């Protein structure tokens, strides 16, 4: 099994926390870029070597910005050059303000069967400083419209750790999300990226970001409230009703092959990882020369550390036999594991290491302690 990710490098919004300055010259370059994306799909038809494609994912930027002809051009290139599984999970990232009955119907006809809606917050005040184009009402309406149109697999994104967001505020957001009865939730802790308006506002004290303790309490509250209503916390930022975990992202975390199309898109063929040039112009200019990407062959150490990093972030944890299969587990790493177990950060049962509830809050710290450096 393998996945295909299509990176749509366009967005009309200017979110204050986003460091992806996508070309706003969508109108000028859209035709050229879309045909480049479709050409790259054809150019790389052998990359997954006959593996059946079980997931197709349109991300970005804002794929919902594209009109149906452009979406079809890329999708048809995929369908004509790869073997898609009958139950292929076809995800489209969309902004709430791009959703309407006509769009939804055309996406369904295209084969999209999972929507990832960029809600971010149900509080107008947050949407304002985020500089999001949609309103809270549009968010709630977009989810209902998606269900009414026939989408059975809807995911929404929410952000916590927001300025002036109390635990009570976050509780209201979580309750709102629960009442909307979606199948999947992705909840990210706000990060203050370089070169963003948010960074400037924090630096001049215009916005104050909650400290680690508040963020930890928000994380615990989220986990408790979602698990209490039947969501599985299957990855550090992701919750799903049974059977609705994102197959596409799960395959990343399980080290499966994936093909990434578009500027800055990453690919992995099981041995080598490669990444395309990030600049839109360079990508379109260099695509026909073949000189638009770089690649690296993963060493055994890379594979060892990657299995730890991706495995510990998920409810699956890390299989020690699988780890040992990559390379001998050094004594130093075994000691770190025992130490983390003593501190109650991980639990080791049989051949599997998993983070505990306390450990989830320090996943990156714990993972890096188990790395072979
Ligand atoms: S909509 Fe998404 S990609 Fe566009 S600016 Fe906002 S966060 Fe960035």
Structure report:
The chain has 373 residues and is α/β, with parallel strands linked by helices. The chain folds into 2 domains: 2-252, TIM Barrel (Alpha-Beta Barrel); 300-370, Arc Repressor Mutant, subunit A, CATH 1.10.10. It contains 15 helices and 15 strands. The protein has helices spanning 26-43, 68-81, 101-110, 124-130, 136-149, 167-179, 197-203, 212-228, 247-253, 280-286, 300-312, 320-326, 331-342, 357-360, 363-370; strands spanning 2-8, 53-60, 84-94, 114-120, 154-160, 184-189, 232-235, 238-240, 257-261, 266-268, 272-276, 293-297, 318-319, 346-349, 352-355. The chain has a 9-stranded mixed β-sheet, sandwiched between helices. The chain is globular. The model has no long low-confidence stretch (mean pLDDT 93). The structure holds iron/sulfur cluster. Iron/sulfur cluster is lined by residues 11, 13-15, 18, 20, 61-62, 95.
Topology:
Elements: E1 2-8, H1 26-43, E2 53-60, H2 68-81, E3 84-94, H3 101-110, E4 114-120, H4 124-130, H5 136-149, E5 154-160, H6 167-179, E6 184-189, H7 197-203, H8 212-228, E7 232-235, E8 238-240, H9 247-253, E9 257-261, E10 266-268, E11 272-276, H10 280-286, E12 293-297, H11 300-312, E13 318-319, H12 320-326, H13 331-342, E14 346-349, E15 352-355, H14 357-360, H15 363-370
Parallel strand pairs: 1-2, 1-9, 2-3, 3-4, 4-5, 5-6
Antiparallel strand pairs: 6-8, 7-8, 10-11, 11-12, 13-15, 14-15
Bound molecules: iron/sulfur cluster.
């Amino acid at each position: 099994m393998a996945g295909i990710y299509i990176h749509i490098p366009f967005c009309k919004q200017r979110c204050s926390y986003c460091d992806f300055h996508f070309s706003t010259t969508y109108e000028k370059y859209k035709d050229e870029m879309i045909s480049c994306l479709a050409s790259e799909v054809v150019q790389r038809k052998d990359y997954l070597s006959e593996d059946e494609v079980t997931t197709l994912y349109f991300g970005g930027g804002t794929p919902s910005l594209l009109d149906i002809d452009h979406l079809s051009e890329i999708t048809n290139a995929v369908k004509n050059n790869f073997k898609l599984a009958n139950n292929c999970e076809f995800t489209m990232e969309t902004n709430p303000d791009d959703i309407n009955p006509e769009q939804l119907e055309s996406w369904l006809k295209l084969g999209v069967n999972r929507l990832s809606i960029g809600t971010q917050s149900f509080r107008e005040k947050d949407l304002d400083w985020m500089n999001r184009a949609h309103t809270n009402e549009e968010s709630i309406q977009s989810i209902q419209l998606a269900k009414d149109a026939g989408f059975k697999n809807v995911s929404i994104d929410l952000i916590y750790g927001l300025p002036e967001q109390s635990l009570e505020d976050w509780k209201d957001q979580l309750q709102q999300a629960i009442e909307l009865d979606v199948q999947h939730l992705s909840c990210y802790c706000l990060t203050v990226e370089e070169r963003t308006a948010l960074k400037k506002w924090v630096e001049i004290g215009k916005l104050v970001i909650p400290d680690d303790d508040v963020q930890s309490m928000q994380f615990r509250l989220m986990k408790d409230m979602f698990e209490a209503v039947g969501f599985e916390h299957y990855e550090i930022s992701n919750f799903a009703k049974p059977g609705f975990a994102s197959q596409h992202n799960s395959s990343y975390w399980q080290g499966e092959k994936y093909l990434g199309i578009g500027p800055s898109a990453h690919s992995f063929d099981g041995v080598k990882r490669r990444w395309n040039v990030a600049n839109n112009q360079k990508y379109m200019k260099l695509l026909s020369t073949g000189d638009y990407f770089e690649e690296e062959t993963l060493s055994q150490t890379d594979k060892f550390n990657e299995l730890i990093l991706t495995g510990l972030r998920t409810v699956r944890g890390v299989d020690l036999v699988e780890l040992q299969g990559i390379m001998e587990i050094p004594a130093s790493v075994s000691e770190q594991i025992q130490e983390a177990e003593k501190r109650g950060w991980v639990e080791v049962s049989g051949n599997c290491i998993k983070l505990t509830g306390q450990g989830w809050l320090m996943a990156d710290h714990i993972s890096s302690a188990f790395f072979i450096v």
